[in-house]
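[scheduler] slot 2 assigned
[scheduler] job type: sequence-to-structure, two independent chains
[scheduler] chain ordering preserved from manifest
[runner] begin chain α
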Amino acid sequence: MSSKFIKVATPQVGEEEIQAVVEAIKSGRYASGPRVEAFEEAFSKYVGTSYGVGVSTGTAALHIALEAFGIGKGDEVIVPPLTFFATVSAVLYLGAIPVFADIDEDNLCLSAESCRKVVTDKTKAIIPVHFAGAAARMDPIMELASEKGLIVIEDCAQAHGTMYNGRVVGSIGHAGAFSLFATKHITTGEGGIITTNDEEIAKICKMLRSHGMSDRDTHVRLAYNNRLNEIGAAMGLVQLTKLDDLNARRIANSEYILDEARKLPWANVPVAEGDMVHTYFWCPIMVKPDSGRTVEELKAHLDASGIGYRHRYVNPLYKQPVLKTLGLDYSDVFLPNAEKTVGQVLGLPNHPSLPEEDRERVVEVLKAF
């Protein structure tokens, strides 16, 4: 077997992005300007919203969106226990309280049924995360939000181009928050963007990302310096033109590998069916608990075979030690689907530039486990 190491992910950047960045540098305009505005317009059009607000990171997108909707001290925000901690951090930055609801087992996304069980008079918002490129079931989440008067901010950090019932995620809730980190579906190197149909919220987000200024000399809110820059936006404009093609190749690679994996007696593939376009930020696979094998054994097998993988989120987020330092006690929280899932999901190589022979090798290694 080849000794070549197969990477799980790699940035998809070509000469077009390099040339766009060079032109931006030569322009002498580096802070937010016409390229950022063009990227905001193009990205929001792609998602299907009226407005886009470019920011410095995906975490900043969540933080600013929450604050723009008035989320603050003591407010409760429902979040999932399986994702990157930034979803929770954004809530904590504002003095709000994360409230954890369980996930659906098949798509690993926030469960509307579980959300309903934890809504209180203090609940102000829900942040469904479209985990690993799968869409959360947004219809029942939006129905719950409408019934209870809650704000829904979609965390789309892992789901650029994912669709649910014919709509691109980031256009279904009251706002969407995207990350543009190096290994996401598309990248600006580092960055993020907020999408919304609410003109007033978009205006507030633009103030919050830039020192709370209503004009060059007037500061009307205490705010941040979280702007997206022209160099990143130049890169993002090119990347956005490639997104559908990159996603098509990512999907093809993932579905080929996972279709083969489903034939294996030990493998569990957590992908929901229905009217959803999954864009596979991860190519997710789990080991069936009754198979006599473990995820640690699979990791060792992949390591020995030179196959890269993602293995993250090994504990529910409500067990992160930082929460105790903030005086938050989640010791009585036990979410059964999350507890069964954390630490069990591996992401296999699936990036758009994965050669066919590498894809075949990944399958052969899985078969040999």
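[runner] end chain α
[runner] begin chain β
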Amino acid sequence: MASTSAAAPTGADRATGGVQSVERAFQLLEALADSGGVATLSELSATSGLPMPTIHRLIRTLVAQGYVRQDTARRYTLGPRLIRLGETAGRLLGSWARPYLAELMEATGETANLAVLEGGEVVYVGQVQSRRSMRMFTEVGRRVQPHCTGVGKALLAQLDEAEARGVLGTQPLQSHTPYTVTDQGELFAQLAVARERGYVVDDQEQEIGVRCIAVAVPGAPTPTALSVSGPEARIRALEAQAGNTALVPVMRQIASRLGQVLAP
């Protein structure tokens, strides 16, 4: 039986400054995540490019530690022990982002949000609320569908079309208001425009009376977006006042600085 004790660093380890087995273990976990959390060994070999003996060895260790599980169909899934790590990382992400969200709120007067894509849903991981009496109450931890929210569309726009379609799934897009875009062709046209102009709008698509402007956070280790949201009339007035020549550049500048902090 192969020893599980730490081996001496290889030439590749020394060249990269890391431990190759650890790097490969995380490579496998990311390959599992990219596969929707479930994959066979042959699928992991194809997506990760790692040799099968290496995958066998690493998977056994990950299963023993609870980070991967094997189901009855001989497939492997992400394990429950990752949940605690993800929840803690999510809380820290919100903490790291808070100064930047506060800056965005002060610049616009409206609620600033930070969100990531997780399991086909948008998860709000950070927020600084507007000081105004009428404000949004999208709490941290809330999960929403990506096709009908500003941050969701900003997240989808960071993926290629195949990945975005995988996130949306094969079921019809759910309508939340009369303004929700439920046609995938129309949605993907919006995403193409969002990539060109650098921002996306949710105009009462998730909730009547609420408008949201969102931008991507470049350089983040996972698709991430920030937004300002508020009553529809007030956001429109903010856009008209700034003419979108000031509002969006401010948002993108803050997002860029936040991305540098979050970059691996």
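[runner] end chain β
[qc] chain β: Residues 83-262 form a domain with the Beta-Lactamase fold (CATH 3.30.450.40).
[scheduler] slot 2 released
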